[in-house]
Design brief:
Blueprint (H helix, E strand, L loop, with lengths): L6 H8 L3 E6 L4 H18 L2 E6 L6 H8 L5 E5 L14 H11 L1 H14 L1 E8 L6 H7 L3 E5 L3 H16 L34 H12 L6 E3 L7 H7 L9 E3 L18 H6 L6 E5 L8 H14 L2 E6 L31 H5 L3 E5 L4 H6 L3 E6 L3 H10 L3 E3 L6 H11 L3 E2 L13 H13 L1 H20 L5 H16 L4
The structure holds uridine-5'-diphosphate (UDP).
C-alpha cells in the first residue's frame, strides 16, 4: 500500500471481491461439502459466495446449517418446480435430475441478478446439475462441476456413454470386472446401483449426465491423490475428450461444526468411554436397513462384546433406496429404537449407546474414544473417517456405495467387509457381523487398516496446506476464474 493510502481506498481500487455461485443438489450429503467449499473459497481465496439450493431440500436443519456459514457466504433457494407428474416411487436420481432441468429458467434469472450485483466469475453445479451449466453460459461465466464422490465414480460417469453404446448386457451379467483406467477393477454387481437396470429412467439419466459432464469447463472432485493414486495419475492428465479434472479434497465439515449443541447425548456418552474403544455405526443421512437386518445388526453388535454408538433409523423394507429421510435426515416419525430386539437396550446398556436418527458425526469421529466406524460408505462419511484417522467396516447400501466399498477394501485397504449371506443371499448375519467387528477392533486386519488410515489422515491434512496437492489444485482453478474475468 502507498504511503497515506487507506485500506478503504485500496479496497475500492481493487474492486469488489470475486463472487462464485454454487448450486447444490438436494440432500445434506450434497449441501454440506458445497457449503464447506464455499467456506474455503472465502477463507483462503477471498471470494464471496452464494450457495443455491432447491426448494425440495428446504428444511429447518438445512437452513440452520447454511445460516452458520460466514457472512460472506450467502444462501438462496430456487423456487419450487412442479414434479407431481413423475411416477410415484420414481428413483431419487430421476427426481434430482428432473428438478435440476426444470429449474434452469429460475437459475438463469438468479445468475443474471448476481452478474449485475456482484463480480460473478464462475458458476459451479454438482453431480446432478450438468444441465444447469446452460445458465452459466447465458450469464457469460464459466460453468464448472463439483463432483462430491471419488475419481473411480467420476471415471465411470465419464466413460458411461461409451460403455452404454458398446455393450447391451447388464453390468451384473458381465463376465469380468469393469476396468476403468487407473482404477481398481469393480465387479459388475458392485457398480453404481441405478446402473443395474438399463431399462430404468435412473439409468438413462446417468448416461445423460455422463454426456453432459463434457460441457463443463472443469470438474472439481472431492477426493485426494493418496486415496486413489492410480486414478489420480490418469485423470490429472488433460484429455481432449473430457474437461480437466481437479482433485481438491477432502472437502469435509469441521469437527467443530455445531459444537455448541449436542442434544443427542453422544459426546457426553463418548466422554465416559475409554480411549479408542468404540465402534461408531451410522448409515449416512438417508440409509435405512430392513427390519430383519436391523435386528441382525443389533444381535451382531451385542455378540461382539465391543462398545458401540449406533445411530438407529426406522427400518425400510422397500429395497436398497434411501429411506424417506433422504431430504431431511434429522427428521424421523417414529422412535426407531422400538424396532430393536426385545431387551436389547437393557442387555447392552453397559457397552452400547443407541441414538435415534442423527448424531454429530464429525465430532464423534474426532473423539478420542472412537476406534472404528461401521459405515454405508457414503463418500462424505468415508472422507470424514479418513480425515479423522478412523478405519471402517464397509456396509454399502445404495448409490455408488458398493463401488466405494470395493475401493476401500481392495485398493486403499482401510476397510473390512462382512460376508453377505442369509437364506435369500442378501442378509448379513449376526455371527458374521460379530466376527468383522472383533477383527476390526482387536484383530490384525483391523490393525493394518488403522496403520493405513493414519497415513491417509496425514496425507489429507498436508494436501490441504499451501504447497499441498489439493490446495494448489484449487488455487489453480481459482486463478483461472479470476484471470478469465479480467482485471477487476
Ligand atoms: N451425518 C451426520 N449425522 C448422521 C448421519 C449423517 O452428521 O447421523 C452427515 C455425515 O457426517 C456426512 C453426511 O451427513 O457429512 C452424509 O453424507 P454421506 O455422503 O456419507 O452419505 P449420504 O447421506 O449422502 O448417503
Amino acid at each position: 500500500m502507498c504511503c497515506g493510502e487507506t485500506e478503504a481506498t485500496a479496497a475500492a481500487a481493487r474492486g469488489p471481491p470475486p463472487h462464485v455461485a454454487l448450486l447444490s443438489s438436494p440432500g445434506m450429503g450434497h449441501v454440506a461439502p458445497l457449503a464447506e467449499l464455499a467456506r474455503r473459497l472465502h477463507d483462503a481465496h477471498g471470494f464471496t459466495v452464494t450457495v443455491l439450493t432447491y426448494a425440495s431440500s428446504d428444511s429447518a436443519a438445512q437452513r440452520a446449517f447454511l445460516a452458520s456459514l460466514p457472512p460472506a457466504v450467502g444462501a438462496a433457494s430456487l423456487p419450487a418446480v412442479p414434479l407431481g407428474d413423475l411416477p410415484a416411487g420414481a428413483a431419487i436420481e430421476t427426481l434430482l435430475s428432473v428438478e435440476a432441468q426444470r429449474s434452469v429458467p429460475a437459475l438463469t434469472a438468479v445468475l443474471a441478478g448476481l452478474k449485475s450485483t456482484t463480480n460473478l466469475v464462475a458458476f459451479v453445479a454438482d453431480l446432478f446439475g450438468a444441465d444447469t451449466l446452460r445458465a452459466a453460459r447465458d450469464a457469460g461465466v464459466p460453468g464448472y462441476l463439483f463432483f462430491p464422490s471419488n475419481l473411480l465414480m467420476l471415471s465411470l460417469m465419464l466413460h458411461l456413454p461409451r460403455l452404454d453404446a458398446e455393450d447391451a448386457a447388464e453390468f451384473r451379467d458381465l463376465p469380468g470386472p469393469v476396468r476403468l483406467p487407473g482404477c481398481v477393477p469393480v465387479p459388475g454387481a458392485d457398480i453404481l446401483q441405478p446402473l443395474q437396470d438399463r431399462a430404468s429412467d435412473a439409468y438413462r439419466w446417468m448416461v445423460h449426465h455422463g454426456e453432459r459432464y463434457r460441457d463443463a469447463a472443469g470438474i472439481l472432485v472431492n477426493t485426494f491423490d493418496a486415496v486413489e493414486p492410480g486414478a489420480a495419475a490418469v485423470l490429472r492428465q488433460p484429455e481432449p475428450w473430457r474437461p480437466p479434472v481437479y482433485p481438491i479434497g477432502p472437502v469435509t465439515r469441521q469437527a467443530t461444526d455445531g459444537a455448541a449443541a449436542d442434544a443427542t447425548g453422544c459426546i457426553d456418552w463418548l466422554d465416559a468411554q475409554p480411549e479408542r474403544s468404540v465402534l461408531f455405526v451410522s448409515f449416512g443421512s438417508g440409509g435405512a436397513l430392513s427390519t430383519a437386518q436391523t435386528r441382525e445388526l443389533a444381535r451382531g453388535l451385542e455378540l461382539s462384546g465391543h462398545r458401540f454408538l449406533w445411530v438407529v433409523r426406522s427400518p425400510s423394507d422397500g429395497g436398497a433406496n434411501p429411506g424417506e429421510s433422504y431430504y431431511d435426515g434429522s427428521r424421523s416419525k417414529d422412535d426407531p429404537r422400538r424396532f430393536l430386539p426385545p431387551g436389547f437396550a437393557e442387555r447392552t446398556k453397559a457397552l452400547g449407546h443407541v441414538v435415534p436418527s442423527w448424531a454429530p458425526q464429525t465430532r464423534v469421529l474426532a473423539h478420542r474414544a472412537t476406534k472404528a466406524m461401521l459405515t454405508h460408505c457414503g463418500w462424505n462419511s468415508v472422507l470424514e473417517s479418513l480425515a479423522a484417522g478412523v478405519p471402517m467396516i464397509a456396509w454399502p447400501l445404495y448409490a455408488e456405495q458398493r463401488e466405494n466399498a470395493v475401493m476401500l477394501c481392495e485398493e486403499t485397504k482401510v476397510a473390512l467387509r462382512p460376508e453377505v449371506g442369509g437364506a435369500d443371499g442378501c442378509l448379513i448375519l449376526a455371527g458374521d457381523i460379530a466376527e468383522v467387528v472383533k477383527e476390526m477392533m482387536d484383530g490384525e486386519k483391523g490393525e493394518a487398516a488403522r496403520a493405513k488410515v493414519a497415513e491417509l489422515k496425514a496425507a489429507a491434512a498436508s494436501g490441504l496446506e499451501p504447497g499441498g496437492a489439493s490446495y494448489e489444485t484449487l488455487a489453480k482453478v481459482v486463478s483461472d476464474w479470476k484471470a478469465a474475468s479480467g482485471p477487476s
